[in-house]
């Protein structure tokens, strides 16, 4: 059965409709980070388990919601085509209703007629409730929802509901049969957590935040009894603490996110020592998955070492996934070396990620044993291509099980050796070919943040070799890797009124004109390029990132804004509008990131993407064209008029003028929810912003870091909050001067969901293993 959007039904979109009672819920959550189903081709076109959280919010949701509205209009009414929707089979109606938020189903739709009253309470719709991106839900709706169907809910996801008061979690106690509960990003105290968990005796999977003031001694014996049965725990730490880990004696999967700041708001340095009374030791004997992601800062490193100390004493026999994501330098210690040595002797891994300092210069990879690996991340490591082939792929060993590979920042990973090699030297195509042949089922590949230059050998270009990976769903490449060698050797075309690739005096630019269609000669030249052929061969691609190898965002995490930018790679100088136009072949593209493409002249390729990529939901553009002027504004505005499914837009461009014309074009994006603009010396029109917010009723996040004064920014922010907060409970507005010294203090108050997903720029392809959490 095809969906109303024209795309085949996926297993993810209908998976929740196939599960019945509580027993099926447990079986659905039993697989730990299993590889997704085969992509492309009817029912085989699968999604990761994480896609379940998006199934009701994909581009087809609008069509499904309209059908649901028709259903709600009356049982006997016929549509304009003479078809009565109420005559559809229950199976079809249930599929349509699955695209409607659960709060609307239970609180509104089911009141329209008897048939819908029965269908809206079907177990396929009520046993998994996803509120994590239902930005219109409030405390009263949650209370009524739990009162009506609480006993029917087996999985509840409230991740990122930062706008709900802490008391909202009190109503979760009505869900007596809960098996999985996600409260990441929700405010909850120790006492409330204790009261809630005391009633959830069937709980097996839990995700929570541990904030300053958390006190494990306040947890009741009933609460600890529930925690002792939890096998999956995701814990985000904002303060040095073990949280509830010592109470979870049956842990099989442990995910830790360290977001502890080095300084308090008052400016005092924080310590990584745990709070008094937290000397209990975690229980890792049954652990199968250990994952830790660290935000920048030495305190996070100190605290994670305390968690690892127990692992170094006795490595769990069933450990099959060990992943630590740490930015910057995270030095290896005696305890961590003992842990890695023990792992090399006693376990066989399926997923691995280690800090670069733990791998660089060590022979660890030579001794580690792997079973059927599905995820590797060697991000920022100095791993050479020779070592990659010999120690990981084992000289061309069959690695069909590998579905996700992150080589971001591995500057030598496609070269035979790194000792005498310069970063900009040509890659060894035989290494990439061995990788492609051995890992033929890759679905997520990240090669960004490095110079991967192809040689002039015919048929050995990086794009030609990658075109063999027919199952790819997400791909991240450096800009210099997609250019044709012959073209890159030539002098790039001169641009009218060109300015140096540096920040200079602002240049006034009128409305640009650009060719709406390509000539036959230009089309033939374009379609013969290696990047065009790569895009044509990867028709199932959903996420694409093309990022300059020397690009760095003007907004780092815990530092002042960057004032200067490194110039793009010489090989990247010819990449521009034609390469962007090639992306328009990706019919199913949902997320696109373009950063530091220097040869953007008009931006005409963006219009092609807007017209052809109708499923596009996330768009991030940064430093396109000449840095001294915004050359692609006219094309961008034309593109936005066609992006009806766009939900997230991030723009980072010096001298960006956010005026009335831009916001009028942006108002065509009727599904837009989140907007972030980062612009050194950029300007904005307050009236245009207010008009945009009034027209786009779905927008709940507006972040602008521009060159305006602090007074202008504060006044606009207060006006938006005052005008729209009442009708949009999840509204989050941050408007602040980009170069202000207090920017880092403002950033720390942004909800983690927005900060991690859109406000901060980063490559997200293969950032984590697929199916890491639901």
From TrEMBL:
A single GO cellular-component term on record: SCF ubiquitin ligase complex
Organism: Gallus gallus
Name assigned to this protein: F-box and leucine rich repeat protein 18
Biological process terms in GO annotation: SCF-dependent proteasomal ubiquitin-dependent protein catabolic process
Pfam families registered for this protein in UniProt: F-box-like (PF12937), LRR_FBXL18 (PF19729)
InterPro entries per the UniProt record, alphabetical: F-box-like_dom_sf, F-box_dom, FBXL18_F-box, FBXL18_LRR, LRR_dom_sf
Region described as Disordered: 1-55
The organism's place on the tree of life at top rank: Eukaryota
Composition skew (Low complexity), residue ranges: 25-42
F-box domain mapped to chain residues: 82-129
Originating gene: FBXL18
């Amino acid at each position: 059965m095809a969906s109303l959007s024209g795309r085949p039904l996926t297993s993810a979109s209908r998976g929740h409709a196939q599960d019945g009672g509580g027993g099926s819920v447990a079986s659905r959550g039993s697989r730990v980070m299993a590889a997704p189903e085969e992509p492309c081709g009817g029912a085989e076109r699968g999604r990761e388990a994480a896609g379940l959280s998006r199934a009701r919010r994909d581009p087809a949701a609008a069509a499904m919601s309209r059908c649901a509205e028709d259903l709600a209009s009356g049982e006997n009414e016929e549509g304009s085509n003479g078809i009565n929707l109420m005559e559809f089979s229950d199976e079809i109606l249930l599929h349509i209703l699955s695209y409607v938020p659960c709060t609307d189903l239970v609180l509104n739709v089911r009141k329209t007629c008897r048939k819908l009253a029965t269908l809206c309470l079907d177990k396929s719709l009520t046993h998994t409730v996803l509120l994590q991106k239902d930005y219109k839900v409030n405390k009263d709706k949650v209370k009524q929802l739990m009162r009506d169907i609480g006993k029917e809910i087996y999985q509840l996801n409230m991740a990122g509901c930062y706008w709900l008061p802490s008391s909202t979690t009190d109503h979760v106690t009505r869900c007596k049969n809960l098996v999985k509960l996600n409260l990441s990003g929700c405010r909850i105290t120790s006492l409330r957590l204790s009261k809630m968990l005391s009633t959830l005796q069937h709980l097996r999977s839990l995700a929570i935040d541990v904030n300053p003031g958390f006190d494990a001694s306040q947890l009741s014996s009933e609460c600890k009894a529930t925690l002792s049965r939890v096998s999956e725990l995701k814990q985000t730490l904002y303060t040095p603490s073990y949280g509830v880990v010592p109470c979870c004696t049956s842990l099989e999967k442990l995910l830790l996110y360290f977001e502890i700041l080095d300084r308090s708001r008052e400016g005092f340095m924080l310590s990584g020592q745990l709070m008094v009374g937290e000397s209990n030791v975690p229980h890792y004997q049954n652990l199968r998955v250990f994952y830790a992601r660290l935000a920048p800062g030495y305190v996070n490193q100190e605290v994670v070492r305390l968690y690892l100390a127990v692992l170094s004493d006795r490595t769990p026999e069933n450990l099959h996934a060990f992943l630590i994501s740490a930015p910057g330098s995270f030095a290896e210690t005696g305890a961590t070396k003992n842990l890695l040595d023990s792992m090399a002797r006693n376990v066989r891994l399926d997923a691995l990620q280690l800090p670069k300092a733990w791998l660089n210069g060590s022979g660890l990879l030579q001794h580690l044993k792997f079973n059927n690996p599905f995820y590797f991340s060697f991000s920022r490591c100095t791993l050479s291509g020779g070592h990659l082939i010999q120690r990981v792929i084992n000289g061309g060993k069959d690695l069909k099980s590998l579905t996700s590979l992150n080589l971001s920042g591995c500057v030598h990973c496609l070269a035979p050796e790194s000792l005498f090699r310069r970063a900009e030297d040509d890659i060894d195509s035989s290494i990439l070919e061995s990788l492609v042949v051995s890992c033929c089922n890759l679905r997520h590949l990240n090669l960004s943040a490095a110079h991967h230059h192809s040689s002039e050998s015919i048929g050995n270009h990086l794009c030609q070799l990658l075109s063999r990976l027919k199952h790819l769903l997400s791909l991240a490449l450096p800009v210099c890797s997609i250019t044709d060698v012959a073209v890159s050797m030539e002098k790039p075309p001169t641009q009218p009124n060109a300015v140096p690739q540096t920040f200079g005096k602002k240049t006034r630019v009128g409305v640009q004109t650009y060719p709406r269609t390509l000539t036959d000669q230009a089309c033939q030249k374009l379609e013969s390029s290696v990047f065009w052929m790569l895009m044509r061969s990867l028709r199932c691609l959903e996420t694409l990132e093309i990022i300059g190898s020397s690009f760095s965002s003007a907004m780092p995490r815990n530092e002042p804004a960057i004032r200067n930018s490194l110039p793009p790679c010489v090989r990247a100088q010819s990449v521009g509008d034609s390469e962007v136009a090639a992306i328009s072949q990706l019919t199913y593209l949902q997320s696109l990131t373009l950063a530091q493409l220097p040869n953007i002249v008009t931006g005409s390729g963006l219009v092609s993407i807007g017209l052809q990529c109708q499923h596009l939901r996330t768009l991030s553009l940064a430093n396109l064209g000449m840095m001294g002027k915004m050359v692609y504004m006219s094309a961008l505005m034309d593109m936005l008029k066609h992006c009806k499914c766009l939900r997230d837009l991030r723009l980072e461009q010096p001298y960006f003028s956010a005026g009335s014309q831009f916001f009028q074009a942006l108002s065509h994006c009727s599904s837009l929810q989140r907007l972030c603009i980062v612009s050194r010396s950029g300007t904005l029109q307050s009236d245009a912003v207010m008009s945009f917010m009034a027209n786009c009723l779905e927008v709940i996040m507006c972040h602008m870091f521009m060159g305006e004064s602090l007074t202008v920014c504060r006044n606009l922010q207060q006006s938006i909050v005052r005008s729209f907060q009442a009708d949009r409970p999840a509204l989050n507005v941050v408007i602040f001067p980009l170069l202000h010294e207090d920017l880092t203090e403002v950033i720390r108050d942004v909800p983690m969901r927005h900060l991690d997903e859109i406000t901060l720029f980063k490559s997200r392809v293969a950032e984590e293993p697929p199916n890491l959490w639901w």
